Each structure stands twice: as structure tokens, then as C-alpha cells.
Amino acid sequence: EIESRHRLRGGWGGGGDREWGRGLPYDSALSQEALETLAEEAGFSGSEGRSLAFTRAASVLKALPGRLSTLEELGPLPGIGEHSRRVIQDVLEDGVCAEVERVKLSERYQTMKLFTKIFGVGVRTASRWYQEGLRTLVDLQERGTKLTRQQQAGLRHYDDLNTPVERGEAESISRAVQGAVQRCLPGTSVTLAGGFRRGKPHGHDVDLLLTHPEAGREAGLLSRVVSWLDSQDLILYQHSQENSYALQEGPEPPGGRDVMDRFERCFSIFRLEVQGGPGAARGWKAVRVDLVVAPISQFPFALLGWTGSRHFERELRRFASHERKMVLNSHALYDSRRNLFLPAVSEEEIFQHLGLEYVPPAQRNT
Ligand code: CTP
Ligand code: MN
Ligand code: MN
Ligand code: MN
């Protein structure tokens, strides 16, 4: 049963932004979707560079004002390569691009999509399973595939975790965490980051940033918060990581793409009580939650880094390093010319250091 439902439906992975882009001209949205499919497929094949090129092209389309009816209108837009132009042209002329349709129908693409939507399964694992002849979620169970604790939880809650999280649900989880931190360390603030901070109506998870106005007080907070939430039966799965960042180590080497930050964090699955929706009969729904603890001095950088979008962060960091010779990450901003860290008490100040006009969260959806 799981098999037929999941193999046939497109999934909402790439489509998560489809609803978001609903106001767009129809054909432009279709081209974007086509390019995102190719980006996804390239990622499944391990071609990160190609994947990024298609993602960039899709973002350029997203940023275009008004309706796109001919390819000429695109002019010599930087960021749209020849392959992407061909895809856009096909979609404009025929409504579909044969290459993209072929990808969507391919067994490998569909299986990779199915497997990578399991929490804890990346391209490498999914690809190995595909090589081994596994095709469905049932296969994973019946053939006794070795799964990590995280993957077991991902499989157990597959449907819930692939159902978009609504803003109201995110706010309710934020309140629950707020309650927990007030018990453990009064004065701690809880900030909703990620897509919801950018104003998106849904997300794939809830990203919460914790900090305390007195430096150092946040140490050890996370494990107490998680224990308390767990004692209230609010947590279905969790995996915590300790803080491994020391400013003395100096900045990360520039150019390291998507380097993980090193805050104390917890990747978790919450058990959220619900009245309606898919989990209504059970009365609860599983929701992915990321909890991140930042010391107050790093908070603006953490907030900027965890608000996203991923693409916006990538471009901003690239701008910092190429145009300003500065290294920006979720911990700090480092000026390589002057050999010093540039402190900030707000996101606004970080943009000032970079010599950029402030970009509010709602405009970081590119
Ligand atoms: N992020 C990060 N380190 C991670 C995971 C995420 O710095 N280990 C950042 C990402 O760069 C992104 C933000 O946190 O900018 C939110 O990530 P994510 O939850 O994956 O994406 P959202 O933009 O929130 O989109 P969604 O609604 O799908 O959750
Ligand atoms: Mn909705
Ligand atoms: Mn998120
Ligand atoms: Mn997240």
C-alpha cells in the first residue's frame, strides 16, 4: 500500500515551492519546475555542479518580474546556461520538455526520490539501495535492510514527515519549546527561523533558535530542554550534537560549500497534537524540528544563517568572499584583509559590514 501511494505521487519535495510560487505566470512556473527536476536528478547522480547550475537558472526565472512568453525576453541573462535555455524553450513551445518527462518517469529517479525523502537517508545511501535492487519502502522492511535509528524513525513517520508543516503547527511547537525553556532557564528566547521566518505558509520542518542574553548561560541548556520535552511525551526521536566551535580556531576556509555550523543542536521529531489534517484520527502528527543553541554574541549570524533560503545563503557567502574578501558563516564574519572579526548585534549590522542594503527575511526566498 505504501508502495503504490508513494511511487506514483510526485511528492512535494521540489513541489514544496510550487504552491509558494502560485502567483507566478503559469509557463514560468512550469519552466522553473522543469529546471528544479533536472537539478534534483543531477544531485541524485552526484553531479553537484550541474545541480547547482539548474538551481541557479530556476532562481533567475523566479526573480523575473511579469510573464515570460518568449525566450528572447530572457536576453543574455547571466546564470542561465545553454542547457537550461533549451529546457525553458521546450516548455514555452510545447508545455513540456521531453528530457524532463523522461527523467520523471525513470525508475531510478522515482526510487531515489522515494528513498531520499526518508529522514536520515542521503543520496549515497539511496543510491546504494537502488544498486542493490531495492525499489520500495516495503522492500526496505522485508529484506531486512540495515537502518540507523534515525532512518528507522524516518521510515516509521514517513507519511507525516512528507506532509507539509503548517504555520499554525510551527507556532504551536514554538510555544511548547518556549514553555520548556522558561522552566529550564528563564530569559531564554526562542526564535522561529527557516522558511517560516521568510513568511512561507508551509515548511518541511520547524527551525528554532535558542539564545540567552547573558553569555555562557546557554551552556547545557539544550539537554535539559530536550529531557523535559521528552518527559512530556513530546519527542518521538532526537539526536543531539555538542557545540564544537571555538572562535580561537579562526574562520572556516572560504569556499567550503554548505559547511555545517557547529552549534549545539538537536535534530528531532516532535509528537504534535492535532485536531484536523492527516493525523486527525490518531490525534497527533510527527513533525521534524531543528533546535539550535547560539551564544548571544553569535546570535545575529546564526539567525541570518538559519533563516535561509539555502540559495540566498550561498549567494550571500559567495558575495562576501568574492567581493569583500570576508568569510561569512553562521558563527561570525571575518575580514581577511584586515585580519579581524566584525562583531554584530543584529542582522542589519551584518549587511552593513558587507556594504549591502538590508534584505528583510521575506525577500530572501530566492
Ligand atoms: N541550515 C544550516 N545548517 C544545517 C541545516 C540548515 O545552516 N545543518 C540552514 C540552511 O542553510 C537554511 C536554513 O538553515 O538556510 C533552514 O534550513 P531548512 O530547514 O533545510 O530549509 P527551510 O528554508 O527552512 O525550508 P523548509 O520549509 O523546507 O524547511
Ligand atoms: Mn496549506
Ligand atoms: Mn526549515
Ligand atoms: Mn531545518
UniProtKB/TrEMBL annotation:
Q: What is its main location?
A: nucleus
- Residues annotated as binding Mg(2+) are 205, 207, 290
- Top-level EC class: transferase
Locations listed in the record: Nucleus
Alphabetized GO MF terms: DNA binding; DNA-directed DNA polymerase activity; metal ion binding
Named cofactor requirement(s): Mg(2+)
Reactions performed catalytically = DNA(n) + a 2'-deoxyribonucleoside 5'-triphosphate = DNA(n+1) + diphosphate
Instruction: Give the E.C. number(s).
Output: 2.7.7.7
User: GO cellular component terms?
Assistant: nucleus
GO terms, biological process: double-strand break repair via nonhomologous end joining
What UniProt keywords are attached to this protein's entry? Magnesium, Metal-binding, Nucleotidyltransferase, Nucleus, Transferase
Tell me which family the UniProt entry assigns to this protein. Belongs to the DNA polymerase type-X family.
Q: What does this protein do?
A: Gap-filling polymerase involved in repair of DNA double-strand breaks by non-homologous end joining (NHEJ).
What name has this protein been given in UniProt?
DNA-directed DNA/RNA polymerase mu
